Amino acid sequence: MIKLEDRIRAWATVGHIIKNLSVQEKARLIEGTKAENSWFTEESIEYALQGIARYLDADKLRGWTKSLPDVNHTPRKIGVVMAGNIPLVGFHDMLTVLISGHRMLAKLSAKDTFMMQYVAGLLHEIEPRFKEYTYFEEKLKDIEAIIATGSDNSAKYFEYYFANIPHVIRKNRSSCAILQGNESAEDLQTLGRDMFLYFGLGCRNVSKLYVPENYPFSPLLDALAGYDRLLLHHKYSNNYDYNKSIYLVNGEPHYDTGFALFRDNAALVSPISVIYYESYKDQQDLNNKLDQYRDKIQCVVSRKGWYPDSYPFGKAQEPELWDYADGVNTLAFIQQNL
After folding, report:
1. Which CATH superfamily is domain 4-172 in?
2. Rounded to whole angstroms, how far apart are CA atoms 129 and 243?
3. Nearest 5 degrees, angle CA 74-CA 79-CA 83?
4. CA 18, 23, 28, 31 torsion: positive or negative?
5. Please, what sign has the CA dihedral across residues 324, 327, 331, 334?
6. pLDDT for the residue 299
7. Going by DSSP bridges, is the β-strand pair 255-256/261-264 parallel, antiparallel, or unpaired?
8. pTM for this one?
9. What is the separation of C-alpha 173 from the centre of its chain, rounded to a whole number of angstroms?
10. How far apart are CA 136 and CA 87, in angstroms?
């Protein structure tokens, strides 16, 4: 068994190594990851690595795990089904299970295997005892609890298949931004990161804007001009061309930056290269609109985080250890059920 402080030290050392990767080692990781998933770019991989290093701070880890016992007398087998929409998206679940002192049996996404195995390998080098706690499996058998991330359709299967054991089942979610019309050009440029990092593929990416009635779009479109580099990626460019052609053929009103489309639509989730927007009359109207999607919104962003429980612009993809996906505290889930 591995004592809690030893677990914390091992993970903090992983964070230190990732934070100080050599140019050569980082290039090797980037190339291996890009070869596995063409949506993953150098920028997105580096950003994901920075997020991992930010998590793995010894003081943060100690504060986060202060309620855990020093030693678990009976390590349990916890299954984890990981997504692969953005680099290292399953890392927090792996960290949560292993720092809790339990065994992780993980089914990796075929789209995000290389980097997850690299991080696990680092952990095993630093603390070899973790080898007996970390398993990557194609089929999850004899597990005592499950944390699974997938689509709304796969969630139905997970809920049926794992009905008899403690479970956390995550479904499709997306994020939104609230604009007031008083945002500066710099604010709007920063908001672009929330929309376009990872090409909008993450559940914390903003796919919907709530704007005041008669909102002038020109300042927003001008402020986002620097993100035209998105078109250099062939898959993103193909999505942009396709969605633009649909809007033009059908005569659907929209705003076009030349690399992204903005469409008036009450839905929360938009296609790649498209951002939906919806106007609101006042804050009560805004609250009502957001309440409709309470179970589908991952996070909300607003200028300087003025809206209750929202993140400042540019911070949607920078969660802390205690910012849990779908608002479900997986650390507490493990403590309470095992």
Report:
1. Aldehyde Dehydrogenase; Chain A, domain 1 (3.40.605.10)
2. 51
3. 150
4. positive
5. negative
6. 97
7. antiparallel
8. 0.95
9. 10
10. 17
Provide the H-helix boundaries in the chain.
Answer: 4-19, 23-36, 42-55, 58-64, 91-99, 114-126, 152-161, 185-196, 218-223, 234-250, 283-291, 330-337
Question: Cβ(112)–Cβ(23) under 8 Å?
Answer: no
pLDDT of residue 1: 85
Task: For the chain, list residues with pLDDT below 70.
Answer: none
**Cβ proximity of 95 and 10 under 8 Å:** no
- Does the domain spanning 174-312 belong to CATH 3.40.309.10? yes
Residue 115: Cβ within 10 Å count? 24
Rounded Cα distance, 332 and 10, in Å: 21
Residue ranges of domains in the chain = 4-172, 174-312
Phi, psi dihedral angles at 314 (to 5 degrees): 85, -5
Local structure of 20: helix, strand or coil: coil
Task: Dihedral sign for Cα 216, 218, 219, 223, please.
Answer: positive
| Chain centroid to CA 207 | 13
> Which residue type occupies 161?
Y
The per-residue pLDDT for 69 is 87
Nearest to 17 by CA among 5, 33, 29, 34: 29
Tokens of 280: 């609101």
Report the first-to-last Cα separation within the chain, whole angstroms.
16
Query: What digits encode the pLDDT tens for the residues 274-295?
Result: 999 999 999 999 999 999 999 9
The token pair at 128 is 């070899």
Helix 114-126 and helix 42-55: axis angle, to 10°? 30
